[in-house]
Amino acid sequence: GAVLRLEPQLGPGEALPAVPRSLRARPPRRDRSGPWLPHVDEEGRRFLTPEALAERQAARIEGPVIDGFCGCGGNAVAFARRDLPVLAVEADPGRAALARRNLEGAWVQVLVGRIEALLPSLAERMPGATLFLDPPWEGRPARWDALFPPGLEGWAKLALKVPADFDLASLPGGPWR
Q: Most C-beta atoms within 10 A of its C-beta, which of 15, 54, 74, 133?
């Protein structure tokens, strides 16, 4: 989280080489092998949880899990690999279809809809489930109230994947670390 400042030490008349055009105005790729799921869209290429991280997150969950923002299904795949009962929710029908394709053969149901609208019925369908939330944070303040409507904070077991600059003080029911 600290700022890193680099100041090249150049001699008189020296200049840094130009950045090749092929590398300009594009975010650097973290992994040249591409996404680990076979069916992703452009958003999935950018925001898919890396496989190793998804596996580590899944190892921390016990019992049934509801993936509230499943996207292309990366986290749901990791939960299913651990034989956890999974119910995945995605607001975008196209992305939900990609998740279904990635989850073929797994005992995971993918629902289309907004998690806050479906939550009352999901609580009845999967009592005691962990609610896993990995929302699209890009362009939104890293605060609980910037993305989540009232009602989610009452869930018994909640697992959040948040950005490094997330304001922990914005979580309901704190204090948190």
A: 74
C-alpha separations of 11 from 14, 16, 18, 72 in Å: 5, 11, 17, 50
Cβ proximity of 102 and 38 under 8 Å: yes
Write the pLDDT tens digit of every residue in 114-150.
Answer: 988 888 888 888 888 999 988 877 777 777 777 776 6
Tell me how far apart the alpha carbons of residues 155 and 9 are, in angstroms, rounded to a whole number: 54
Taking the model in full, what pTM does it have? 0.75
Alpha-carbon span 144 to 148, nearest angstrom: 6
- In contact, 85 and 64? CB cutoff 8 Å: yes
Strand partners, 90: 112
CB 84 within 8 A of CB 65: yes
